[in-house]
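re: that complex we talked abt at group meeting.

here r the seqs, copy pasted straight from the sheet so there may be weird spacing, ignore it
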Amino acid sequence: MSDTLGVLLLGFAGLGPDQDHQQDMYLPAFSTHDGFEVVAVAGDDAAGRTTAERLAGKLGLPAPAADLATALADPAVDVVSVCVSPERRADAVIAALRAGKHVLADKPLALTAADAARVAAVAAETGLVCLPAHHQRFHPMIGAARGAVAAGKVGLPWNVQADFLVAGGTPSPAGELANFAVYPIDVVLALTGQRVRRVFARLSTHWSDGGADDHALLFLDHDNGLTSTISVGRTRELADTPPAGLALHRYRVSGSHGVLDIDASRPAVVLRRAEASSHTWHGAGTVDRLLDELRAAIAAGRPSAPSAADAVHIAEIVDAARTSAASGTPVELSQEGSR
Amino acid sequence: MARHSVIEDTPPPGVLIVGAGFIADHHGAALRATPRARLAGIVDVDAGRASAAATAAGGVAWSTDLGEALARPDVDAVIVCTPNMTHEPIALQVAAAGKHLLMEKPLTITVPSARAVVEAFDAAGTVVMAAHTHRFYDYGRAVDDAIAGGAIGRPVFARLAMLGGWIWPDWRAWVLDPAKSGGHALHNGVHLLDLVSWWLRDEPVSVYARGRKRTAEELRIHDYLEMHVEYAGGASAVCEMSRGHRPSTIDRRDVLVAGTDGVLQLPAEGWGSPLVTESGASLLPPQAANGFAVQLDAWLDAIADPAAERAMTPADAVRAVALGVATELSIERAEPVTLDEVMGGVLA
Ligand SMILES: NC(=O)c1ccc[n+]([C@@H]2O[C@H](COP(=O)([O-])OP(=O)(O)OC[C@H]3O[C@@H](n4cnc5c(N)ncnc54)[C@H](O)[C@@H]3O)[C@@H](O)[C@H]2O)c1
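got the structure back, here u go
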């Protein structure tokens, strides 16, 4: 393995017509990261192939392979960044792993826990890295908080209260439970390390005109006496938040010996001018740090954190939330947990 | 609010304070500061407490016999500051005596008794109000004013957290005996449940609550309460009331209300001035209106004109009790509980 890993950008789709994390998030991060080099692009459907062709021209890369198998057979490719449409995503990730490639998978890794579990099984079997792009846990405030909790600064964590509220942008047609909940759930799991055993949830539509949910309240009972509550959704546009930016992103971790308040709108230089105020900061972003983890896990030959198995658990929680919101009663998760 | 002249033909109403404990001092101070009412006397089952409070108040009359005090013609109204389990019988006695009542929260600790009290005052034609004091604090009013002014459109989601060591100092107090307090949901939970329901302008339909005994497993009440309320109009709320947080020097009040057109926040750190001294860091709270005085004014307004719109209605007081009862039941069952169930299928 050379020092720089070759990356194939596969697919440019997301939840909803205008979501393209491949070009918006992963391509810029791979392009500036020392450990990676984008060597190929490909699509797995007509729209994806059109985008791939245009992008190959723009980036000066060879013409995209005609089909998935050819693209995955390229020996210059070490890592596949998978952003194919969510319905085909699990299968594409499995194909990449079977072709011997490491994977960065856009979120959600799969639309159901069962599909995510299929991916996790192949990742475990092949020993390759399969990193679900839960990049918010790499936020510098959250990274530091994980260290503090691990160092026992608040004692035994017994409760987390989380708010993840995006303002503006295009509402996800799949609903914001499917679209956003993975981020704060992943952060709560990363902060506490405790699996969820019971889920009570409520889904509402407050802001969008479509029928999809735009606010989810999740009441989670974890192992080890931990409870957490997550409010996640998307409001209408707010003047001081860039479209699709986070208006509120915070976690309060209560422990037997202290309380830690994490405000992920910091660190920030606050700019106030004639127009709405804005924030800026210097340094690596969450996606850059996500790629650091990808690089480190591949180099060490270890599963990434988060792993595909973590994505399975999150998908189970999201599935249970949907069931609970429909029935109005709490839902128990299976005791053994999926691997 | 009606303006009242200090010089009036009729003397200001005489007010009796029943229960001369911690919170009675706040009501006494508010009474001393207003020209609109007069402290007529103090009643406590403990003669020592009654007499000490009467002396401290400048030598007003005191008694250990509520019936005797209520019979006095110069007593027009009563503020009750006794432990929660005594609220029902005392309220019914005050109603029977034909006097107005400001009852410390909760109005009572069961829904049927809360209803019975409201019916008794309806029948007597006198005023009953429960002292949900947070409605009368500057912060509670600022949030309500903003919502009333349409600043965030229709409010759809509220978070309200109160975490603090100040919530009770004495771990042996009656408050920690569920038979006497009704449990933490009825004792302190009702403050938050009432406040968010008022802010959201929506009728609660169900409660999902989780309670914890954080400080010691021997506790008989939940020193941490998390209460999720769903409303008929689609709004929802998450309230936390905690004496279980550590360290107990924590003093947190956190407000978030999201509306259809905006978001309102009273951030924990925006509350006071951070003060760092040789003995540590703390928050210096801003000067504020005396919530007990504002509340007293609202009650006196209702007495002066019972037909006018009330700051806190009897139905609000019953609803707060129902929410508290639903919370305790939800914790016990680990399931959501509907207001219909605890209200016995009848609306307040
Ligand atoms: N609004 C608020 O913010 C707030 C704050 C604290 C307490 N409270 C409420 O105030 C009430 C009193 O609480 P507290 O903390 O002052 O209690 P406390 O224990 O300090 O005082 C209660 C007093 O009532 C007396 N008493 C007991 N039974 C009596 C009876 N049957 N008749 C007459 N007197 C009797 C006791 O001797 C004692 O002096 C409670 O209902 C509580 O929920 C309200």
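couple things i noticed - Chain B touches chain A through 33 residues (CB under 8 Å). Chain B has two domains: 14-133, 138-284+313-342.
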